[in-house]
Design a protein that fits this description.
With 258 residues, this protein is α/β, with parallel strands linked by helices. The protein contains 8 helices and 12 strands. The strands form 2 sheets. Strands 2-1-3-4-5-11 form a 6-stranded parallel β-sheet, with helices on both faces. It has a 6-stranded mixed β-sheet with strand order 7-6-8-9-10-12, sandwiched between helices. Strand 3, helix 2 and strand 4 form a beta-alpha-beta unit. Helix 4 runs parallel beside helix 5. The radius of gyration is 19 Å and the shape is elongated.
Length: 258
């Protein structure tokens, strides 16, 4: 592709050491490669219409992906909608759009296996709202625990939203104080981190989600920057992208960091 116009749309500035920073680091990598990438923070604006490669970082941009899918550009949407998670085989992506399935459910399954080996007692898992993507993650974690110890109790608590900080704090306390959990993991972004912080203060081991290990015992991570960069590089080199790019444990695109 000659003189491509590449751009990133991201919901906010970086600073979370995880989901957002992964996209910003990809943008920085494109800059270092001399690609002069554009960036829009927040809502998609008219400048995006002139880009050849559009990276939309988050499922909140699904409608924008559909609108921009006119065959003149390549669009990478860095998440999958709940309809895909509910029934991948029945979902059809618009022409020119590649969605990324980060396969956090698969990572959660590996995390469940590790958790069952880490502690001998009950285990807790804090999920976001009970949409298919969160249900898959919670089910994967439970499945992983059961693969090691079928008799182990796993307590799963769903939150009402990814902004429900008070619910996260309460969930962490309930899981440890009332349900006796010796380890608490989550997939619920900031409220999940609040839950694990409370659980940790009460003596439980904790697994983080997308963020560096820090005070957690381990953290489920995604190779956000390398995946975004690899997809853009494929387009620049004239290659074709799949409708859905599914990340894998074997390739290190999902890992449990310690």
């Amino acid at each position: 592709m000659e003189d491509p116009r590449i751009g990133l749309v991201v919901p906010a500035n970086g600073g979370d050491a995880g989901w957002l920073d992964g996209a910003w680091k990809a943008w920085e990598a494109w800059r270092r490669a001399g690609l002069d990438p554009h960036v829009v923070v927040g809502a998609v604006d008219e400048s995006v219409d002139s880009w050849d490669i559009v990276v939309l970082h988050g499922i909140q941009y699904l409608e924008d992906a559909n609108r921009l899918a006119d065959g003149r550009r390549t669009i990478v949407l860095s998440d999958v909608p709940t309809e895909y998670a509910a029934d991948p085989a029945a979902f059809t992506t618009p022409p020119g759009v590649t969605m990324i399935d980060w396969c956090w459910w698969l990572g959660a399954e590996h995390a469940g296996r590790a958790a069952a080996q880490e502690v001998g007692g009950p285990i807790g898992f804090v999920a976001g709202p009970p949409v298919p993507t969160q249900q898959r993650a919670a089910a994967g974690f439970v499945r992983g625990v059961a693969a090691v110890d079928p008799a182990r109790r796993v307590n799963v608590l769903y939150l009402s939203s990814f902004l429900a900080m008070d619910e996260g704090l309460s969930a962490g306390k309930v899981l440890v104080e009332n349900l006796g959990c010796e380890l608490v993991a989550h997939s619920a972004d900031a409220p999940g981190s609040a839950a694990t912080a409370v659980a940790r203060d009460m003596g439980a081991a904790t697994y983080g989600f997308l963020t560096p290990v820090g005070d957690d015992t381990a953290s489920l991570r995604s190779a956000i920057t390398p995946v975004l960069c690899a997809l853009v590089s494929t387009v620049l080199e004239g290659g074709a992208l799949p409708d859905v790019y599914a990340c894998s444990w074997e390739a290190g695109e999902i890992c449990l960091e310690r």
